[in-house]
Amino acid sequence: LAFGSLLEEGFPVRLVGQDSGRGTFSQRHSVLRDQKDNSRYIPLNNISKDQKRFEIVDSLLSELAVLGFEYGYSLVEPDTLTIWEAQFGDFANGAQVVIDQFIASGERKWTRASGLVMLLPHGYEGQGPEHSSSRLERFLQLCAKENLQVMNCTTPANYFHALRRQIHRDFRKPLVIMTPKSLLRNKLCVSNLEDFGKQNSFHRVLWDHATDPKENSFIKLKERNKIRKVILCSGKVYFDLLEAREKLKKDDVVLIRIEQLYPFPVKSLVKEIKAYKNNAKFYWCQEEPKNMGAWFSVRDYIQWTLDYIGANNNQISYIGRDTAASPATGYAKRHLFQQREIIEKVFK
């Protein structure tokens, strides 16, 4: 929808990655093959006669070379939505030189603005240390002076608006998105048709399903002044916690998603959590080890927010994996044990 609507509005879209045409994750059916003559058919190039071109490329197996080229392309063609998609987010470190020397610092060094989008499949699902982490912490460590946008979207509509916003803004900033894997199949990770309309926009912070007046299929939470814990999180772990809370029938824990991790949405967060300032305790929950993920980046922003709203329990605490040298365990049983441990701590 995001690609097609931009093409219709007169903006070309270029998507490049090692398996983007074949559709490893989000880009299912971007390219169809005729089994008789192996010819390519691209549905997004057949919307209308007046549309712009959708270019999708299965790239060579060199993150460094391909990301460097796409960064250059984004400078030359600022009105094209230029996207590089990693096969798994873990493999982006093969292009770390381009990320450090150009994408994160190019605007400051050379006043060259890039609107390049990096899609990095990210999430802890027991697939081992090479297929779990996009090294979110590295991108957040590079953030300063509003040089990057870093997101971890949990709804199709938010992803849609983030991509469209990238082109419709009157300035260009690189956008790094931790894209979903299992969430593509999660029955709760959906958006209504009206969420994609012009009256809606990208939400930097998203509320709990159970507090949404449009939802009635979740447990009824206690009144806000009786909520015991406010859990701040980002990405897939929200749905793990949501599912667990439904099973445990815990009605005194509220879950809030930070969709945009940088620039950090302090104003939006104030609006969401100030109603809980009198009695609740505040926690940051993540799947990643403590020395990875967003914890070291977001804790100071959240602490400032708690001080600003005058929270009685104004100390932000951490729930997640312990520090680790490897991003994830290679044993599925250990992974599941660690996930259960996180959930137990949240609802204890």
UniProtKB/TrEMBL annotation:
GO terms for biological process: tricarboxylic acid cycle. The keyword Oxidoreductase applies. GO terms for cellular component: cytosol; oxoglutarate dehydrogenase complex. InterPro entries: 2oxoglutarate_DH_E1 (IPR011603), KGD_C_sf (IPR042179), ODO-1/KGD_C (IPR031717), THDP-binding (IPR029061), Transketolase-like_Pyr-bd (IPR005475). The keyword Oxidoreductase applies. Residues 1-186 form the Transketolase-like pyrimidine-binding domain. This is Transketolase-like pyrimidine-binding domain-containing protein. It comes from marine metagenome.
